[in-house]
Amino acid sequence: MKIAILTSGGDSAGMNAVVRAVVKAAILKGCEAWIVREGYEGLVRGNIDATPNAALPAAAEYTEFPPAASDIIKNLRFGDGQLLKDGTGDYASGRTLKGRYIVRVGWDDVRGWFTEGGTLIGTARSKEFRTREGRLSAAHNLIKEGIDALAVCGGDGSLTGADVFRAEWPSLVDDLRTQGKITPEQATKHAHLKIVGMVGSIDNDMSMTDLTIGAPTALHRICEAIDNINSTAASHSRAFVLEVMGRHCGWLALLAGVAGGADFLFIPEKPPSSGPWEDEMCETIHKHREVGKRKTLVIVAEGAHDIDLKPIRAEYVKDILSERLGLDTRVTTLGHTQRGGRPCAMDRILPTLQGMKAVDALLEATPETPSYMIGIQENQVTKVPLMEAVAMTKAVTAAIEARDFEKAMKLRDPEFRE
Ligand code: F6P
């Protein structure tokens, strides 16, 4: 079997560990391992340069800084030989990857990747892949390389894209054959595409898994930031409003609140209860100050809103704390510092175990079995029907939009799956 792995959507710590695990597990199981650069965009573009291994630009080209440098660096993400040594694939040292998005890799090519942040194979939010034309090109590019299985690491949108691609695959193959782009033999050989998904997202917003890859690292980053904020806050007896990421999900904010000792927090699934939340927040914080707290921390999830779905903004919270409680208040938005950087231990272990399981899932897959998502539930690496998990995830957002917050909380609760 020829297995390709791609990363898609927003990057998250641990994605490189997934790639490493899938590549190594595939090779160990006697398969060929391939990577797709730049997510689905790379799948659509394929190998523009048909020469497998164009030579590296001469060293002199690197010294032109700018204007050529940015182009060269972009195209040489892997190409300086440092990462590529002499893997069994196209990556052998000193090869440029310019114009090549689907590349065979060997064991050495991914050595040590689990310590690296972001995704070394690149990611993109591809518009092309959303069109049938784009997916036709993607199918053609995979078939040209003889690839019959795809592992995808990304958020729910990216994994849904994989399932759509798989469902559509027979008709794409049919079109390619009719258009004479592939031979009848290729069409028969590639009648089905096997796919498997792993959830790479700092938001921890996917149902039917307890943790998504990258969420533990992001949480750790937030905790470190809170520790830093706490010392300066206590010194000046100040209040801080901290905005954290998470899109529609409050997991990062909630857990950071527990781990960092927040006074009050706002998450999308459980907006502040009835009555003006400003009063409730001020009362709580006033009490905390009364019993001697020298610092105040309010965490606002980026998707936070009130019960009428009106967004709650950190700046507004700051104004309330300053005006009503007279607190010297600052806003800190952590932004992408939560997403980048080296993965914590959990974001090396989890993707490694999941990557191995993903390869097994591909080897066991048949045209009749559903597409699977690899997750973790109660400390066990699991394999669950991908679209069930996506549907349940979407149900949470729908419940929030319908202002049924009780249901949203229940859906987030792991107990719910029983
Ligand atoms: O889904 C991951 C995430 O970091 C969210 O928490 C955030 O809303 C979004 O991506 C930010 O996306 P971008 O990197 O495109 O600004």
What would you say this structure looks like, in words?
Helices cover 42% and strands 15% of the residues. By secondary structure, the chain is an alpha/beta fold. The strands form two sheets. Strands 1, 2, 3, 4, 5, 6, 11 and 12 form an eight-stranded mixed β-sheet that branches. Strands 8-9-7-10 form a four-stranded parallel β-sheet, with helices on both faces. A hairpin with a 2-residue loop joins strand 11 and strand 12 (380-385). Helix 1 (15-28) crosses helix 12 and helix 8 (215-236) crosses helix 9 (251-260). The two termini are 36 Å apart. Bound molecules: 6-O-phosphono-beta-D-fructofuranose.
Ligand identities: 6-O-phosphono-beta-D-fructofuranose
Give the mean pLDDT: 88
Helix content: 40-55%
Global Rg? 24 Å
In DSSP terms (H or I, runs of 4 or more residues), the helix count works out at 14
Provide the succession of SSEs.
EHEHHHEHEHHEEHEHEHEHEHEEHH
Q: Unreliable runs, pLDDT <50, ≥5 residues?
A: 52-96
Quick overview:
This protein is of the alpha/beta class. Helices cover 42% and strands 15% of the residues. Residues 52-96 have low confidence and may be disordered.
